[in-house]
Amino acid sequence: MKSTFFKIIVAILLLAIGVYLGKSFFSSPEVNTVPMPSTIKYRNIGISNDTTQVAQSIGFNGKIIEVKKGASIQKAVEEANPGDLIRVYPGTYSENVFIDKDNIGLQGVVIDGEWPTLDGKKEINDAFLYSGNGILIENFKIINYKGNGIMGQAGNNFIIRNNWIIDAGVYGIFPQYGKNGLIEHNVLSIIADAAIYVGMCDNVDVRHNEVFDNVAGIEIENSRHCLVENNYAHDNTGGLLAFITPGLPIKTTFDVILRNNFVVNNNHENFGAPGSTVSGIPAGTGILIMAADDVIVENNIVTGNNNTGITIVDLATGDPKANDLNTEGNPDRVVILDNIMFDNGNDPTGEIKAIMLSKMDTKGPDIFAYGGGTGSTIRDKNKYRTFGLDGYGKAQITDTRDIPTMMTPSPVQPRSVSKEELGELTYYGVCAGCHAFGTRLIGPPMEIIQAIHHDNPQGIVDYINNPKNLREDYPEMPPQDYLSNDAKMAVAIYILGLKE
Ligand code: HEC
Questions:
Q1: What is the pLDDT confidence band of residue 13, given thresholds at 50, 70 and 90?
Q2: Residue pair 425/154 in contact by the 8 Å Cβ criterion
Q3: Digit-coded pLDDT (tens) for 177-220
Q4: Please, which pLDDT band fits residue 78 given cuts at 50, 70 and 90?
Q5: Tens digits of residue pLDDT in 134-152
Q6: What does the alpha-carbon distance between residue 413 and residue 157 come to, in Å, rounded to a whole number?
Q7: Ligand 1 atom 12 nearest Cα
Q8: What separation in angstroms does the CA of 411 have from each of 11, 53, 135, 292?
Q9: How far is residue 309's CA from residue 320's CA, in Å, rounded to a whole number?
Q10: How far is the CA of 92 from the centre of ligand 1 (A)?
Q11: Distances 491 to 131, 156, 424 between C-alpha atoms, Å
């Protein structure tokens, strides 16, 4: 009796998934022709104060500044005071908007399907960059930026929602070093690194987003207390990722729940920039947990990922070049609860293929664990095809329903950053995408830059304000003049003191 009931439930589920997937198969991912995602079509255009405590706390009881076609959003930001709400009407705005004040709301007004659109024209680096606390960015369409769609630096209590971001050269949504944030109902595609990248943050909820045709879908990196829930991650190279990148100022990733997500067909060819961390993700990766601790994977539907459904590895395996003595590289206490996993591993690649072949198997598993780590558990190992889970004990919990959110019950103090931290953050947040210490990335190694500008930080500031193409074998560097004067000087001083 019980099993018949179960079969019916499974059949209904499969049917639902089939319909859901069918829809996306017929949608073309091309720029400007992406069909309006359902999450956006039905969203509430006003500020919904009921969504979170953060929204209430931001309050926006100042003035409302309206920006209409032909005007500049940046100018409105310059006029705004904390508590003001900037409402942007439909039209195309080709600008980089920099917000270095607290409690500013930026709200697109969508009229008859016409969105306020920020178009980077493949020339401008970033659409929104904020360093203030209590920032809201919602209802924007952001296309063709060379760098990031929305990037935050050290802003606490942020809300980023209902945005539609297509074709960014680096990250789609990238809050860095922020505490207490919400990223919801965004749709992101064709992002060359991570669509949503939560970096060095604490207490962030990422929910109801759709990410597809990106290299990495949703990435929780060097971050703690994060909930990734109800997202639809499909057709990326890798769907959901929780990991540690060594060498960053924050050394840990822990307390992450990946719950109720669809993680489907993440088989996109990897188009990450050579040398970037994500360029190493094998196509066909559903969920990747690398070196992160206390990650709970619950009630996801993970299917059609050709390498593996879930990969759990240590840093020595996943990122062998990395050496940071201050980073503990094992994934410890990972908990796999009930998930629906099928049809994964149909065409494994690289190391997983080789390892499976050594076991006389040509298919990749639903769950693949390799390398160090202790204390990990699973609720029902027999439900999945697994590899390397011999050390996994029986999970002590059945679900996480008593954890509805990872956000804090009330807003946290605004973050203020010392000059030194500002230099470090700017370097890792902005420059390190193109520069490394001793090796050539997109730009020359910092070692060489130190030699040129050794006791002259102002020389670096002048260059980043107005870069010139100095080297035949390098492209031109995009200007970094949007950074605050403090950030420019702080990063210049930080670079001159870099040792590795
Ligand atoms: C999108 C890639 C990119 C980003 C981001 C980037 N750079 Fe560069 N940078 C380059 C490239 C490419 C060059 C080499 C340009 C040339 O020599 O023509 C360069 C060159 C430089 C130089 C060499 C100047 C000289 O006198 O030789 C400095 C200094 C520099 N970058 C600083 C920075 C700082 C500081 C940041 C962060 C705020 C930064 N860059 C962000 C790509 C980038």
A1: low
A2: yes
A3: 999 999 999 999 999 999 999 999 999 999 999 999 999 999 99
A4: very high
A5: 999 999 999 999 989 999 9
A6: 9
A7: 443
A8: 44, 7, 12, 26
A9: 22
A10: 29
A11: 15, 21, 7
Tokens of 33: 């022709």
Q: How far is CA 371 from CA 111, 290, 380, 389, 472, in A?
A: 53, 10, 21, 11, 43
From CA 108, how far away is CA 120, in angstroms rounded? 17
CA distance 116 to 112: 12
Amino acid at 317: T
For 168, the token pair is 């960014």
Q: Locate tokens 């991650």: which residue?
A: 233
Q: How far is the CA of 321 from the centre of ligand 1 (A)?
A: 24
Tokens of residue 299, six digits: 């009630």
Report the alpha-carbon distance of residue 304 to residue 346 in Å, rounded: 8
* Burial of residue 57, with CB atoms counted within 10 A of its CB: 0-12 exposed, 13-18 middle, 19 or more buried: middle
Question: Which residues line ligand 1 at a C-beta cut-off of 6 Å?
Answer: 426, 430-431, 433-435, 442-444, 449, 452, 460, 463-464, 469-471, 474-478, 480, 491, 495
Rounded to 10 degrees, what is the CA torsion of 222, 161, 208, 23? -120
Q: Whose CA is nearest to atom 27 of ligand 1?
A: 449
Cβ contact 206:229 at 8 Å: yes
Question: How many Å lie between the centroid of ligand 1 and the Cα of residue 481?
Answer: 12
Name the residue of 426, 434, 447, 462 to mutate for ligand 1: max ligand atoms within 8 A of Cβ: 434
Please report the pLDDT score of residue 51 as a whole number.
37
Per-residue pLDDT tens digits for 308-349: 999 999 998 888 776 677 788 999 999 999 999 999 999 998
- The radius of gyration of the chain from alpha carbons, rounded to an integer in Å, stands at 22
Question: 442: Cβ–Cβ under 8 A, 6 or more apart, which residues?
Answer: 273, 433, 434, 435, 474, 475
Mean pLDDT of the chain: 87
Report the separation in Å between the CA atom of 431 and the middle of ligand 1, taken as the mean of its atom positions.
7
The best mutation among 174, 431, 482 to test binding of ligand 1, ranked by most ligand atoms within 8 Å of the C-beta, falls on 431
